[in-house]
Amino acid sequence: MIVRPTQHWFRLLFVWHGSVLQSIIPQLLLMTVIGCVAVATDGRVLGEKIPLNTTPFTLCGVALTIFLAFRNNASYDRYREARHLWGGVLIATRALTSQVIAYVPEGIAGFEHRHFVHGLIGFVYAFKHQLRKCNPEPDLSRYVGGEHAAALQAMRFRPIAILNESRRTLASLHRRALISDIQLSMFDIQVNELEKAVGGCERIASTPIPFAYGVLLHRTVYAYCMLLPFGLVDSLGYFTPLISVFVSYTLLALEAIAAEIAEPFGTAPNCLALNAIARTIERSLLELCGEALPEEEKPVRVYELT
Fold first, then answer.
1. Which helix (H) or strand (E) holds 101?
2. What mean pLDDT do residues 128-155 have?
3. Which pLDDT does position 275 carry in this prediction?
């Protein structure tokens, strides 16, 4: 994720990282070539003049912009909901850690605050890696032990397995009358919140925006951009490639941004900063336990002009 300080308007004109420009340069070069061809042939294809003017492009452009706005709003809703769910993970893990430390005496029936909280941190990292479809074992080994981490590797839903172990630990304390019904209910509410967050993120990850929307938008944007030079050449002449590329940049960039943030758990510059979020939760829970904190991991900060 790219996080920037507030910048001067002039600096923003030259921002490169996180602007999606680098991902659409091939398309812009293609539009430049098409614009040059339109100028060189005076808007003709195989000797035949393409009878286009700016009027249909104006009408189509308005409709296309509305469609792009809908796609971007749908993508941002997914991004915003994913961030909200991870905010809920932070709140629930903090609350559960605080409650356990406050209400369950250390060492009672072999119960250790540190072991329980490390299990919650393991849950956070297992959750992050499940969403990104990568190997969680290095992070899990640090908190649940190598043997347990290896056992979790065989499971399909590792975060839920870790939460189930935490719930079984709390239920065991309750059966031995070491915590009350009310306390068990308090703990269970927070575990339920964590399970809801897992389910919500799984729903986002497994339910992409309908493919037909993406195909229709993609085809329409490219058709519009490729025909645009032939509609502008009579009125703009040699400036046709410049204006065509500028309009194409706007439309292609909007499509690229929508595609990027529609998958909020990825590793693209504008996806959620899951590494930083997970580290923040880890540091917060360790601090509640009075343990040494690992170094803070911040999202990438870019200050350079390009």
1. helix 54-103
2. 91
3. 92
Average pLDDT, the chain: 87
Identify whether 123 is part of a domain.
yes
Backbone angles phi, psi at 17, to 5 degrees: -70, 130
Q: Which of 159, 142, 158, 162 is nearest to 85 (CA)?
A: 159
Alpha-carbon span 146 to 142, nearest angstrom: 8
On whether residue 306 sits in a domain, the answer given is no
Determine which helix (DSSP H) or strand (DSSP E) holds 95, and give its type and residue range: helix 54-103
194 torsion bin: left (phi>0), alpha (psi -120 to 50), beta (else): alpha
Residue 15: strand, helix, or coil = coil
Domain range for residue 160?
2-41+51-301
228-260 per-position pLDDT tens digit: 898 888 888 889 999 999 999 989 998 888 988
The tally of domains found in the chain comes to 1
Distance CA 15, CA 303 (A): 9
Domain presence at residue 87: yes
User: For position 60, what pLDDT does the model report?
Assistant: 84
